[in-house]
Specification:
The chain is an alpha+beta fold. Helices cover 47% and strands 15% of the residues. Helix 1 runs antiparallel to helix 2, helix 2 packs across helix 4 and helix 3 packs across helix 4.
């Protein structure tokens, strides 16, 4: 539905994202003969619960609250490292935080749009960006091994709220 040439945003179903991420994670683990432990699954769930990047200590605190027991930092770091290696999550360097990856096990841009207002992060895949970065690297004989682009602004929901506030004034 369009209003003023802009999309009207429906409430987001985080449960659907979490279930899809867990399904993909379990498939990847089965394919690679790896084990999705309860701790790894809980960490993945936490990282998908809101689309807001979480630092390792935030994950530790939420996991301890969820499981109602003390969680040692190495437990969280091991789970995060496992999920990173499988491509199920990404690290957002500017925030030293982690977020679920909607495109695991596929080549993609690692382009993050991070909202300055609510802190949510959306990952976008864009082949033209990949091509542009590869061409730039090729020009100087640089072997591109990974990339992470972070764009900061307002997400659609915060933009809509900002627009509504501006119209009220």
């Amino acid at each position: 539905m369009l209003t003023n040439s802009r999309l009207v945003h429906q409430p987001h179903d985080h449960k659907r994202c979490i279930n899809a991420a867990l399904h993909i994670a379990n498939d990847l683990c089965a394919e690679k003969n790896l084990r999705m432990t309860p701790t790894r699954e809980s960490v993945l769930r936490l990282l998908w619960q809101s689309h807001k990047p979480l630092g390792a200590y935030q994950v530790k605190e939420q996991l301890a609250e969820l499981l109602n027991k003390h969680i040692a930092p190495p437990t969280v770091y091991r789970a995060i490292e496992f999920l990173l290696q499988l491509g199920l999550i990404h690290r957002i360097p500017s925030q030293n935080a982690y977020v679920g990856c909607p495109f695991p096990n596929s080549e993609h841009s690692n382009l993050f749009m991070i909202c300055n207002q609510c802190g949510s992060a959306a990952e976008i895949a864009d082949n033209s960006i990949n091509s542009m970065l590869q061409r730039a690297s090729d020009k100087v004989n640089f072997i591109l091994q990974s990339q992470c682009l972070e764009l900061f602004g307002l997400c659609p929901q915060c933009s809509d709220r900002q627009e509504a506030t501006d119209h009220e004034q």
